[in-house]
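Why do we care about 3D structure at all? Because function follows from shape, and shape follows, mostly, from sequence. That is the central idea of this module. The next example makes it concrete: a single protein chain, its amino acid sequence, and then its structure expressed as C-alpha cells.
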Amino acid sequence: MSSQTTPSSHQATLADVLEVLERLYPAELAESWDKPGLSVGNLAAPVSKVYLALDATRAVVEDAIAWGADLIVTHHPFLFTALGAVTTQSDRGASIYRLISSGCALFSAHTNADSARRGVNDALADRLGLVDTRPLTPTINDDSLGLGRIGRLPAPLRLEEFATLVANALPQAAQGIRVVGPQDATVSTVAVLGGSGGSLLEEAAASGADVYLTSDLKHHDVLDFVEARANSATTAPGADAGPTRTIVEKPFLIDSAHWASESVWLPYAAADLADALAAAGTPIETRVSDITTDPWTFHVRAN
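And the structure:
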C-alpha cells in the first residue's frame, strides 16, 4: 500500500512565486512588443499575500498595501513605456517609491496570459459558456495555446440574445455592449479576444465564426471591415420601399469594455497561483481587487 506525502509548509519567497507565475504564463508566449514580468521587487523577500488587479493604479497600489500585500500581480505592464526618472513628481515614480517603501513587489502577465491555458481568453470563453474551444491564432509550437479563442454556444441564439448574454456575463462598465449585425441573426460559433482585438478582425473572419467579441474596436477599422463584407440589397424596380440598405455579413461584431473583457481572468489567476504554491508547500493568500480600473464612468443617451 503506497502513501502520498504532502510537502511541509514553509514561507514562500518572491522567487518561488515568480517561478510558479512563469509556469502558468510562460514569457515566451508574450508578443514581441510586450513587456510583462517583474517591475519592482526583491527576489529574496518573503511573500504571504498576493493581490491581483488589471491595472496598478494609485488606488490599487494603496488598497493592496492596506491589505498587507507582499506582491501585486496585474495584467497590464506597469513599466510598458520607459521611465526617465523615478521620483515622486510622476504618478508611476510615486507608486514605485510607495511599493518599495512598503515592501510590496509588482509583476505583470500580459499577452503571455492572453495565450496561456486558463488565461484571459479561456476565462472569457468560459464566462460565456463556450464549448469545444481552441485558440483563434495558435502558437507555432503548440496549437492548444495562442491568442483568442473560438468555440460553440451550447445552443444557437439570436444575435440580440447573445449580446444580452455578454452584457450579463461581464462586469458592468459605462460603455455597455455595442453590436454590429442584425438583431435577429442566428449565431452559434463565437470568437473572442479579451482586450484590444481589432488587429485580429481578419483572423476572426477567416475562422468561420458567426460573431467576434473583443474590445476597443475603432470606427474606421470596423467601417472598412463591414464594407468589405457587405452586400447591397436594392429594392425591386418601381417599389417604394425606401433607400438601399446594407446587409452585414458574418462575422458580426460585439465591442465590450476593455477592462470588462479582461478582468474575468483575475479569479482564475488567483486560484491557480494559490493552488500551485499550496501544492509546493509554500501556501499564500490571494485577493482579487474589487476596484474598477475602467477609466470611463458613465454614458448618456438622447431623450
